[in-house]
Amino acid sequence: MAAGSRRGFTLLELLAVLAVVSLAAGLVLARVPHASALALDAASTRLADRLSEARERAILLGRAVHLDPRDALPSGVVLAALDRGGTAIDPRTFEIAADGDALAARATLADAAGARRVVVLPAGFHRARIVPEGE
Question: Nearest 5°: phi and psi at 7?
Fold first, then answer.
């Protein structure tokens, strides 16, 4: 083989490139959150907005507003628990009274990986918010 007619790459060169690409991909993927966590965060934010809007609507209309927190949850996200004033309730019967409710409501959402988000609709006229699970 003539000195200038060599074609292709050596095995060592290919392994070096493969190692660099693998390291770069590992660094990038470690910084990207999982899709299920993103879906859970989006569902929690949407539920907090729906609860706040339902409370505002109940007060403005002067009548109770029914809301099923399970509606519009993305696949893979479930309503793990729902309570009002510390008492578990059926999501189908969840309603916000015309006075905006004196008792706080708490909804716990979970995904298939076991991650959880807690959405709280506090008593009074405060907007719903996402809180740490132990709070």
Answer: -125, 150
19 or 7, which is more confident: 19
The residue among 112 and 49 whose pLDDT is bigger is 49
Contact by Cβ (8 Å): 35, 75: no
Angstrom distance (rounded) from CA 36 to CA 81: 19
Which domains are present in the chain?
A: 35-131 (3.55.40.10)
Pairing of strands 116-121, 129-131: antiparallel
Give 4: exposed, middle or buried? Use CB within 10 Å, 0-12, 13-18, 19+: exposed
The pLDDT, as a whole number, for residue 26 is 84
Rg of the Cα trace of the chain? 25
Contact call for residues 82 and 106 (beta carbons, < 8 A): yes
